[in-house]
Amino acid sequence: MRISAAEPLLDVRGLNSGYGKIVVLHGVDINVHKGEVVALLGPNGAGKTTLLRAISGLLPWNAGSVHFGGRDLSGVGPRESARAGLAHVIEGHRIFTQQSVTDNLLLAAYDVSQHERMVRVEEALSYFPEIAAKRREPGSSLSGGQQQMLAVAQGLVRRPKLLMLDEPSAGLSPVLVDRVLTVVARLRETGTAVLLVEQLIEKALAVADRVYALARGTVVLEAGAAEVGLAGRLENAYFGTRVTEFSAAM
Amino acid sequence: MSGVSDAVERVSTNDVRERLRNASASMVPLVAIFVVALAVPVFSNDYWVLIASRTAIYWLLVGALNLVVGFAGQLAIGYVAILTLGAYVTTILSAGNVSPPVPPVIALAIAGVAGSVFGVIVGLPALRLRTFYFAISTFGFATIVTQIALAWQSVTGGGIGLPGPEFPAPFDTRSGFYFLCLGCAAVCTWMTANVAHSRFGRALVAIRDAEVAAEAAGISKAKLLVMVFVFTGAAAAMAGGLFASLQTYITPDAFTFDLSILFFISILIGGRGSILGPMLGTIILTLLPEFAAPLAAWSTFLYACLLLGVVLAVPGGIAALLDFRNRKPLDQHRAIVPRADVISEVLRPSQMKESLTLSDIVLSFGGVRAVDGVDLDIRPAQIHGLIGPNGSGKTTILNIISGYYRPQSGEVTVGGETLPAGRPATRAALGIARTFQTPRIIGEASVIENVMIGGTINGCGTFAEALLMLPRGRRDEAMLRQMGLLVLRSVGLDSLADVRADRLQHSELRFVEIARALMSQPAFILLDEPAAGLAPDEIRRLGELIREIVRRGVGVLLVEHHADLIFDICHQVTVLNLGRVLAAGTPAEIRVHKEVVSAYLGG
Amino acid sequence: MAVPRRQFIASGAAAVTAAATLSFPRPAVAQSEPIRIGWLAAMTGASSAPAIGFDRGVQYAASMINAAGGVKGRKIEVLTRDTQGDPTKAVNATQEMISQLKVHAIWGPTNSGESLAVTPIMARSNMPNIHPCVVTSLIDTKKYPNAFRTAPSLGQWDAAVRGYCLNILKTKKIAVIGDTTGFGATAANFSVDAFKKDGADVVYAANIDYNQPDMTPDMVRARDAGAQVIVVWSTSTGMDARLFNTRGAMKWDVPFVGHSSMSSGDVANLIDKREYWNKVYVIGYRSCSFDAAGKLPPRSQQFVDSIKGKVTLSDNLLWWVAGGVDAVNLVAKAVEITGSSASADIIKYWNSLNKFPGYFGDYTFSPDQHNGYPTDDVVMSEASSAKDGAFSLAPGYKA
Amino acid sequence: MIGSILASGLAVGAVYALIGVTYNTMFSASRVISFTAGMLGMLGGVFGSLFILRLGLPVPVGFVLTMGCCALVGVITEFVAVRPVLKSLDQHLYVLSTLALSLMIQQLVATEWSTEPQRFPRLFDIGSGLLDEKFWLPIVACAVGMGALDLLYRHTLVGKAFLAIAEDNFAARALGLPERNLRIASYALAAIIGAFAGFAGGELLLAFVANGALLNFYGFVPVALGGLGSNRGAVVAGLALGIYQQAANFVVGGIFASVAVFAIFIILLLAAPQGLFGAPAVRRV
């Protein structure tokens, strides 16, 4: 376990959450430090998306705690967490197809003061020239990849302390995936922390400082992105064999 | 179905007694109410007899309408239309405005027939329209009928209306007539209760709360609703005939929309899917204005307050307040212990020798090719695992097999015989059962009832037989309940048989769904992520259960994320990616398949 | 599941005790018990205006009699039930009055829809009943020997309207308009037939939904058909006003003749110009009409003076108040003369009445004639001339 | 003749259309179809008459007060009849809760105001005959209302937020939009649209309690035929309905007119359950 002296930006402890009767997360512990990129890996149905939703307050949680920037987020809705600087880009690039690119970004800047809004929008667009060119066009006219970029841009508009990206690569061509992930790298430089849920392990590891592997609703592995033999350990973690050993090994 | 008949033979006498006890237990309060009602003329006066008659007449209609609104969940707010029709038909026939005068009793019967026809007409839009739209369309019929009554002066007397029919002795006195109404109400209640406690009643509730699961169980919404509309229409029209006689005179303005609302509201404050609740609702709403006579001016307002109060405070209605059995806490530390040995009792050795085959299936939504030329071969007595990343088309394939989606090309066959595409209700009869990713359960029904839904197609009694509780209907019930209990025992939930399903834990619901699938004695079972949300030991037991099912010759298609389970129990595994088959083979082969590992892990 | 049973018995028991406490000793035995008059009034809901007017008369008369020591020491007790114009409620209330409140006579209901439903019920227990409802079939001395009408029948109304159109306005081409309610449809049809019988030429007949925002199409048709007078059968003030406004907008000076709702105060609020209300003649009554000199008949004048300050007339019609008073007096008188409040005696007394001097009119009943109101007293009056609930006679009548 | 049918037809049609838009606005914010829509139209007329005629306030003041009061009613609707049942939309409890509330409103008006139609003030006193303001006012109001809505939705962030919530409630929340406040706001907005319709149609329909139930139905027809959630559809269908209804009044007479309307409604709906501009049904599995 890597212990850091600095108080983590995001600190999740013993989190239990789920949908109605379905408990998906069983006592999840993760943390993200300032300016750090953390990849959250794991097979489908492991609870990655659920975890992000619980953190941003889209889902209520029944046990455990979430602290962000020292603030207790229990019972805090998505709006407050967003205001606190925690931006959540949900899966499936669900942008508002009937509204223009600019409007989509303005909506993300809803709480930002009037005169500041356009500044933020331009700033976010500066990361994605290809959609900046289409700023007047409706979201429906964008390709899947561009819609994903727009979704990420929506997250950036708030100048978040932590950006949570849920499978930004889903349904994107490798080229576009790289486009999105380079942005993640740039964000790290600006000191923005990123919590990245990814299917494409190599690509995730390429940008991440640390990885957590989630399986069956619990963290089965935490490691530095650079550690050797990580792939093999992940595989085992995924397929559920000898998990106990690994968790013991940590 | 030999297995089924075995089950029937195995119905031991105490099972039957048990079943009767359950059925009659729910009848006790109803009977009690009618006993008290019988006494009304004895220790009170004509006024209260009149009010009681009115209540009985309203209940005659509401009781039947309860099947449409309370059970099938169709928002029929305009049923005063059929009341009006019945009133006018009875009156006109017995007055002889169009024909030689007919004796009122016979006129009443004819009205019943007319009502059942009209009931179907008013009801049919429910098959096509969304709930609120349907509500408004019934309201439309209500207006049309009164307007016609108003305009057709030569027959209906127009605005002045007609003197209502007078029933012959012994029904010509206040109490005589009251007993007539009470009799009709009692019969109607008995019939409704019979339907409610039959496979048809459960099917109605299934249509309301779990339509998709209902289709998978082979329930045809259209057929079922038409039968119910016929019954309800008849009852409502006869209520109209009695109403006309009670009023002694009918004019179009006697059939106010408030009346319609009263019927509708009685049911909903009574509680959906209950008979006692709506009955109390009707009684309360009919008596209330009489006790609150001085408040007449505000009656509607109070009435609305009551309604709002009920909706906000007790959405379950009166029935929920009276449902004590489901108040007592369940054992918190209960565990699901499937009894593999019982499976052999539940499932007869499957005769199915051919396999369920998908050949070159293609289905795209919009531009996206969800399934892109997939071949699949599910053999009897084998477990076929289907894995792959999200959006790789696993569930889509399940939905194609069970007939919810119509593939653009390719076909699904069993032993060379093509299954009709896009018709889910046919699958149960073809021996294909399934479970769902998120359990499709009727929360307000008991666990056993939920399970019995799965056996709906095994019943052989008709709706009429159920209505009149004829032997075949009774036997169906015995058989289904017996099977249900057996199946529940096999999945290890028999201790929860009579508990409201929505009180169960998620993991238990998964097993309830499997039990429901087993009810139809299927040759193939499609399981959609049965292990999702289950604890490790539960997953292990699930594995054993599936293995045992397969031993009886059933073919299983298992869509699962829990790779460990897949590799543990499957005979064959197919890996999908982006709608295509990435690899197929034995678990061992797949386990080491390089592409799979990378695709599955990404990379 | 025992609780529901208990609950029901509880409410059942409540019913029974209610019955017990409310039931009274039989009328015949106690001579000092109050005279109970059941009063079926549509006090709320649509078209509640008449009932409210009647009620003032009823309460006034009862208080007067009781203040004077009652009838042979028996107080008058008025038991009112608000039927809201709903026949169903009326049926319940009537049965309650008969079997539970044990009233001696019933006054009302005040509209035909309810009356049609309750009359047979009252007949069944031979309950003495007076009502002001117009529908002809309500009075049938064979079927309902207990029911008496103290107001004109539809036939009498229609006769007055027809007579005025044909004999005084001397019009030959008639347009008849009714609304789509039960009353409107019935009255209009009745009127059309009667006009035809009298050889008049009904050039236009229609039923209009009183919510119809614009009456122009019908009015234009009537005009194009050459109508010289428009007969209106509707209780909807909204529809009346719209008709007047349309006529005004069309600059057409055809007279309106018909139902008294056209003279209601509500119409005054709804018409665009005051003068649009001219040339509107509504059914009225001699007893409640000012002659050319602006004087009421002596008896009426004396009545108006007597109630001054006690009953407001400005916002309702004199004939309602007078009718209410007469109803109570008819019952009181019956008990006073026969010394009994038994149904048979009351009915017997009423059947013997000849020109009983009421404030609304002189009532005459006989065993085979229960339409008590004198036809000649039904007259037409100027709709816009309301003053303290009375109207000036329409032009053409000799006082 | 045809002229007057068109005039009154378009006029009432415009009112129906705006009530339809009221239904839509409430629906897109909450997926709830509320029986209070028609009541708001009725209240627009009643409050207008109350403030301007009975209390003698100047027209602009009366107008603003009317809108204000109705907006309040809208907010109350959201709190009392909508929010509590949002959790269980599939049970259709909203049908009951909103029905109950609308019955209360109706009863209150009947007892506290009047059961008889009351006069509505003449606002501008422009035009007569077929060009009378009572005919063109609702039509203009409909145009203005739709224009204003368009401005709101296209050119203000709040309006865009409304659209966002209507399109994808979850995404909107994830984005940090104040979903709950926006829902309250759109109920107030819906109420104002309804009140505006009632106010503009006041001279035509009068301040009459019975208009509530009437508009509830005739306002829903355009929604059903035009397609739930589509304001364009509501306007087209509303105007069509108005003309059809007035023509029916004229051709088959008052008694059968309503029969004609209901019949065509049921038939068209069966033919096209999603309405003219409606979205197709969503996949169930």
Q: Keyphrases for this structure?
A:
heterotetramer, A: 250 residues, alpha/beta, four-stranded antiparallel sheet, 10 helices, 38% helix, globular, B: 603 residues, six-stranded mixed sheet, 12 strands, elongated
Describe what is shown at a glance:
The complex is a heterotetramer of chains A (250), B (603), C (399) and D (285). Chain B has 25 helices and 12 strands. Chain B is of the alpha/beta class and 603 residues long.
The average pLDDT of chain C is 88
The portion of residues assigned to helices of chain C is: 40-55%
What's the helix-strand series of chain C? HEHEHEHEEHEHEHEHEHEEHHHEEEE
Shape of chain B: elongated
Instruction: Specify which chain pair forms the largest interface.
Output: B-C, 52 and 51 residues
Count of folded domains of chain C: 2
How does this structure look, described?
- The complex is a heterotetramer of chains A (250), B (603), C (399) and D (285).
- Chain B has 603 residues and is α/β, with parallel strands linked by helices.
- Chain B is 56% helix and 10% strand.
- Chain B is built from 25 helices and 12 strands.
- The two termini of chain B are 51 Å apart.
- Chain C is an alpha/beta fold and 399 residues long.
- Chain C has 2 domains: 32-153 and 300-374, Rossmann fold (3-Layer(aba) Sandwich), CATH 3.40.50; 155-291 and 380-392, Response regulator (Rossmann fold).
- In chain C, helix 6 (182-197) links the parallel strand 6 (173-179) and strand 7.
- In chain C, helix 3 (87-100) packs parallel to helix 4.
- In chain C, 57% of the residues are buried.
- Chain D has 11 helices and no strands.
- The mean pLDDT of chain D is 91.
- In chain D, helix 1 (2-30) runs parallel beside helix 5 (133-155) and helix 1 runs antiparallel to helix 8 (179-200).
- Chains in contact: A-B, A-D, B-C, B-D, C-D.
- Chains B and C meet through helix 2, helix 3, helix 6 and helix 13 of B and helix 1, helix 3, helix 4 and helix 6 of C.
Draw up the topology in text.
The complex is a heterotetramer of chains A (250), B (603), C (399) and D (285).
Chain B: H1 2-9, H2 13-39, H3 46-71, H4 80-95, H5 104-123, H6 131-151, H7 153-156, E1 162-163, H8 174-196, H9 199-209, H10 211-216, H11 221-247, E2 249-250, H12 257-270, H13 276-291, H14 299-313, H15 317-322, H16 340-346, E3 356-365, E4 368-378, E5 383-387, H17 394-401, E6 409-414, E7 417-418, E8 432-434, H18 447-453, H19 463-467, H20 471-491, H21 506-519, E9 524-528, H22 536-551, E10 555-559, H23 563-569, E11 572-577, E12 580-585, H24 587-592, H25 594-601
Parallel strand pairs in B: 5-10, 5-11, 8-9, 9-10
Antiparallel strand pairs in B: 1-2, 3-4, 3-6, 6-7, 11-12
Chain C: H1 2-22, E1 35-41, H2 49-67, E2 76-82, H3 87-100, E3 105-107, H4 112-124, E4 129-131, E5 147-149, H5 154-168, E6 173-179, H6 182-197, E7 201-208, H7 216-224, E8 229-233, H8 237-249, E9 256-258, H9 265-270, E10 280-285, E11 289-290, H10 298-307, H11 318-338, H12 343-351, E12 356-357, E13 362-363, E14 378-382, E15 391-392
Parallel strand pairs in C: 1-2, 1-3, 3-4, 4-5, 6-7, 6-8, 8-9, 9-10, 11-15
Antiparallel strand pairs in C: 10-14, 12-13
Helix pairs in contact in C: 2-11, 3-4, 5-6, 11-12
Chain D: H1 2-30, H2 36-54, H3 59-82, H4 93-112, H5 133-155, H6 157-167, H7 169-174, H8 179-200, H9 202-205, H10 211-226, H11 231-271
Helix pairs in contact in D: 1-2, 1-5, 1-6, 1-8, 1-10, 1-11, 2-3, 2-4, 2-8, 2-10, 3-4, 3-8, 5-6, 5-8, 6-8, 10-11
